Amino acid sequence: MIKNSSIRLIFFVALGFLLATIQTAEATQAANFNLCFNPDPSNNTYWPANLVPQGSSAAPYCINQDAQAPELVTNFEIDEFYAIQEVLRHIFPSASLTQTPTLNVSMQFDTSGENCEGSMTYVLSSNTINSRYYNIPGALELLTTGVDPVGRNSNPFNADILLNCSINDLQTNFWLDPQPADRNGPNAAEPAPADMSKADFVSMQLHELLHGFGIMSGRDPSVGSYWYNNPPTLFDTLVVQYPDYYLTQNTAPTRYFWNTFAVDDHNQAFFEGPFTKAYLASQTTNPAVSALPGAPIASAGTMNALSSQNFSHIGIIIKPSQNDVDNPFDVDCGSTTYRTSTYKIFGNDIMTMCYMPLFNHTYGIKNNRMNISLLDYAILQDLGYTVDPS
């Protein structure tokens, strides 16, 4: 059992204040961390140009939470270090732990891949839901029990969170912020990126780190069943799917986590954790959002280019020609409507498919620091983390 305290957190919404019960951290110390860098395993002498400060050294190396200059030399290291610090500033170990746990994060460079991705170490649950075991995020196991996840032993540097980054994607599509702690958004006074056509690396890494913390499905995004008949993830156990939700306003789901999900443009999946539902219900100035049964989870049809991101991201973004006219998410990822409309709470979220690295530099979400939202924190709370969004 995960022990957390509940307090009343007051947050502002349009026209007034609402009280929402938010799981928050008791007085406790932030987790320690190790951040380790690996060269491409197929070419152990190769580091991406101008990213790693080891000069002639090709050896993998690690830095920890106390790292300062000269250990943090390049903007790449500074940004990666900042992203991890930012997450652990809001996600805390359980207050019942007597020792501060250390989270291990491994960054692997890849000379052959196309994207930057985050994944999690996992631990098989000891209990079942509907007779199904499920995979618990290793980071959650570590921060709630203090026990090193068994699965980390097979990873580079015993990592709890694995980050893999294509060198081509990194160097071509992203800009590195020399002062990441000073930037608050697209209108901040800090220096603009040298290349305005590139996307913010820190935002992308915050997105990938949240995958590593467990906002991640075990389903094959193209067919809706679990990869190789593996167990669902803890995240999966809180996701259901409704048929033609926007067209018929069905009030009950027809597919649960133990079912294969449909992969088309008519069946909407929702994450229905209690903290997430409470947060959305509190959006009373936006009835369309507060009436939703949970946070919409991507489950677009396979003809959509974004279908490869199904089930692990917020929202459903599909082209009008491929969907019911009544679906309010019936917009292209490049449409500003999705980011400014009634549903902007999802379109602007850091875990939306619209912020996938493949698209954020294509559709103009540039030089914009996206931060972890209250919706993301509610999802993390539903997974069992102790968080403080402030």
Overall pLDDT: 76
Helical/strand content category = alpha+beta
* Portion of residues within helices: 10-25%
Poorly predicted spans: 1-27, 317-332, 356-365
Strand-and-helix sequence, N→C?
EEEEHEEEEEHEHEEHEHEHHEHHHHE
Distance between the termini: 25 Å
- Number of structurally distinct domains: 2
Main-sheet strand order equals 4-3-6-10-7
Tell me the total number of β-strands.
16
> Helix count?
11
Strand content: 15-25%
Largest sheet: 5 strands, mixed
**Net shape:** globular
* Radius of gyration (Å): 20 Å
Chart the SSEs and their pairings.
Elements: E1 5-13, E2 16-24, E3 32-38, E4 61-64, H1 75-88, E5 91-92, E6 102-110, E7 116-120, E8 122-124, E9 135-137, H2 138-145, E10 161-166, H3 167-173, E11 174-175, E12 199-200, H4 201-212, E13 239-243, H5 245-248, E14 267-271, H6 274-281, H7 287-290, E15 295-297, H8 337-340, H9 344-347, H10 357-360, H11 374-383, E16 386-387
Parallel strand pairs: 3-6, 6-10, 11-12
Antiparallel strand pairs: 1-2, 3-4, 5-16, 7-10, 8-9, 13-14, 14-15
Helix pairs in contact: 1-4, 6-11
Give a short overview.
Helices cover 20% and strands 19% of the residues. It is an alpha+beta fold and 390 residues long.
